[in-house]
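Show me a record, fold above all:
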Amino acid sequence: MGTIVIAEIGVNHNGSMKLAKELINRAHEAGANYAKFQTFRSEKLASHDAPLAKYQKASSDHGSQRKLLKELEFTNADFLELKEYASGVGIGFLTTAHDKESSAFVLEMKLDFVKVPSGDVTNLPFLERVAQAGQPVLLSTGMSSFDEVQAGLSVLTSAGLSPHDVTVMQCTTEYPAPAEEANLLAMVAMGDKLGVPIGYSDHTLGTITAVAAVALGASVIEKHLTSDVNLPGPDHSASLEPGEFREMVEAIRVVEVSLGDSVKKLQPSEVENRKIVRKSIVAKKLISQGDQFDAESLAVMRPGFGLSPMLWHEVIGQVAHRDFQPDEPIELS
């Protein structure tokens, strides 16, 4: 299977089931493998006086996270309906749990992946609960040091998960995130050091960083999708609209096939070109039978139907067994 592309709808539905379903349709049309949401109970996720993050303030006049999140909250029944709707459309369904009660509900849904959000990398009880479910995990690593990621992974594996079941997702938790802070090489390093599959949860603007992550080995790409980047809400400005999302997916698929198999070899499309573009040892001037080949009488020219120039030192000093006209390929007796 190629790179898994997740359209992170998140809370870009703005509390509207109609918009949520529209975005599922757009995700499918754009070529995503999954449409993903966020499941939470605002009163369980944020304390009553938890302040807004800077990026949340930019798109909201709510005084606290709880008030903002309350307007973006769906019920369990809503998510079950969305899951069924996604199935009917033909796209996978995922949702990220952000609190204990929501995690119980999400784990019961038996989805293809359980997402551990960046805010829960250090949430020991949450990690243990996820690991005990025995489902493949996407571990997002925004705001984390390597030691914190390693400790979080250790909790998951100690509770029974194999490292191969945990995809560690490089992430920069800012909306939008500066491209110079994407740190894609950290994704590669985590994969090497931890022995796990790697992925990238992208909050940068545009598509370049996500496509670059695939070239570096990301097996999962997660990118926010919206119907309109100008809509009110905390994540719209860091999201892709459907057309741009499709362009990203198409670029990812091109990168996948262009990576090849790591073996340097003659490619099928090069077979005919090789003899035309490569060179042969030829006569630079008229060479008479009995003349000795030397650097003054030989040249290297296209096409490559004759003796390879790699045989140059073997040809020098030998005697012509017949006459050779200028530009004629040299033959040895």
User: Anything to note?
Assistant: DSSP finds 13 helices and ten strands in the chain. The first helix runs from residue 17 to 29. The chain has two domains: 4-259, 268-315. The chain has a mean pLDDT of 94.
